[in-house]
Amino acid sequence: MKAPTLRIWYAIHRWTSLLCTLNLLVLCVTGLLLIFHEDIDAMLGQDHHGSVAAERGAAASAPRPPLQALVDAARAARPGWAPKSVSFSDDDPDAVGVRVGPPGEPRLRNGATVQFDAATGATRKPGPPGETFSGFILKLHLNLFLGLPGQFFIGFIGVLLVASLVSGLVLYGPFMRKLAFGLLRFGKPVRVVQADLHNLFGIVVMVWALVVGLTGTFLSFSPLIIGLWQKTELQHLIATLPGPAPGALVPVDRALDAARAVVPGKDPAFVFYPGTEFSTGRHYGVVLRGHTELQKRVYAIVLVDAGDGKVAAVRGMPWYLQVLLLSAPFHFGDYAGRPLQVLWALLTAITAGATVTGFIFWLKRPRRGAAGARAPQPQPPQLSGDQA
Amino acid sequence: MKDTDVNDRNGGRLMRDTWPMPVLLGLLSLGGLAAGIFGDGAWDWLCWLGLAVPVGVTARLLWRQWRQFRACRRAPAGASARGDAGADEVEGSEI
């Protein structure tokens, strides 16, 4: 690589890194805690992750009530509001949530969810009032308490992180060309020690940090990505499946059964009511998913006519929504048990180490006298012992 | 082409000495990350193994070289317990 090119990469690495340093450290610390959020919730007595069956205590003997009964109960709890969606847990068949909202309001955000024990039809006690500790940490991680703009800002930090990682990877070769892998020259000047540590930490977590950084960035921009789907594919479906809003809706159970009949072997994930942002004016939007770690992130979307209960269309997910769904496990590290959680935490710690050592390396940069402008920027390759 | 081209001059050496470990660790990380999602049991073990190696290598390098440094410090002046990595010639050349 030619020296001017190297200098450009060095500048990119320095500035993208410096811009995201502080925020990245916040993300590392909060992310570290969030890996173990279920344990933290349980420790603080703020968990509502226990299985519904355990919560219930006694075994449910009677046959399951129809879903429609849960929907009716939710409506009764919120008089005047209309059902918007039914959601199903992916790891607890008894946990069902019914979301209700103001009539005519398509956005799910403007509503409230009632949680049910689907085996008995009883409402579950709501989670602990107020903010949980994990909830607080999650907001700090997700959007710095700044709502959607904050979330996009974090996404931008993710873009900087990825740029910093890529430029770091480009610089690694020239920097390390005379140094053995993982050489740490303890006892040498601070800047040398920090550079050695930075190079080791950085290159070791490179692939993992790229994956976590890219998936995190993608997740940050998920509202835009879902919006894209709504404005393109969903709009297209609505245009090709015209029809007046039905006078009376068939029970939600019938819509779900019809959908499961055309896509067998899958579990329900969501049912969106007609007139919401994830369905048409006339159809239930039924979303089904598979069972395995991978398959439960592959959704099938079935539109069921709410007037006659017949399946109107079956769709897969566009690739970008598929990528979005698959981003989640690779960001959270929650897909292979406790050992992966521990490794995720250790890799987060090494990433934080690379961040801090890189920052100290910059802080200790040689400063020219006030006369200034005498010497150009320090040449990065000198650190690799080029002059020896 | 007045600029010295690192890759031309040192290309072979660069590929031989600089990249094998990073590439190996990168592939292990990538394989480990992917393995966990495919299934449970053996897949999970592959996942843990793939990601444990980079962490283990880092811990080992830190520990070994820190211990060497401490030992070297305690040793009488002049005696140098040099690391096997062998790049001590760079002393004083930095910055």
Q: What features would you describe in this structure?
A:
The complex is a heterodimer of chains A (388) and B (95). With 388 residues, chain A is α+β, with helices and mostly antiparallel strands. Chain A is built from 11 helices and 8 strands. In chain A, 51% of the residues lie in helices and 12% in strands. The longest helix of chain A is centred in the N-terminal third of the chain and has 33 residues. Chain B has 95 residues and is mainly α. Chain B has a domain of 49 residues. Helix content of chain B is 68%, strand content 0%. Chain B has 3 helices and no strands. The N terminus and C terminus of chain B are likely disordered. Classes of the chains: A alpha+beta (388), B mainly alpha (95).
What's the SSE blueprint?
The complex is a heterodimer of chains A (388) and B (95).
Chain A: H1 3-35, H2 37-43, H3 52-56, H4 67-77, E1 82-88, E2 95-101, E3 112-117, E4 122-123, H5 133-142, H6 147-176, H7 190-220, H8 222-240, H9 252-262, E5 267-272, E6 283-289, E7 299-305, E8 311-315, H10 319-332, H11 337-363
Antiparallel strand pairs in A: 1-2, 1-5, 2-3, 3-4, 5-6, 6-7, 7-8
Chain B: H1 6-18, H2 20-38, H3 42-74
Order of helices and strands of chain B: HHH
Low-confidence stretches of chain B: 1-11, 78-95
- Can you summarize the main beta sheet of chain B? none
Biggest sheet of chain A, open or closed, and with what strands and sense? 8 strands, antiparallel
* Helix segment tally of chain B: 3
Oligomerization:
heterodimer
Q: Percent of residues of chain B in helical segments?
A: 55-70%
Mean pLDDT of chain A: 89
| Radius of gyration of chain A, taken over Cα atoms and rounded to an integer in Å | 26 Å
Kindly report the average pLDDT value of chain B.
75
Number of helical regions of chain A = 11
Strand and helix order of chain A:
HHHHEEEEHHHHHEEEEHH
- Tell me the number of strands of chain B: 0
Structural features:
A: 388 residues; alpha+beta; 8-stranded antiparallel sheet; disordered C terminus; B: 95 residues; mainly alpha; disordered N terminus
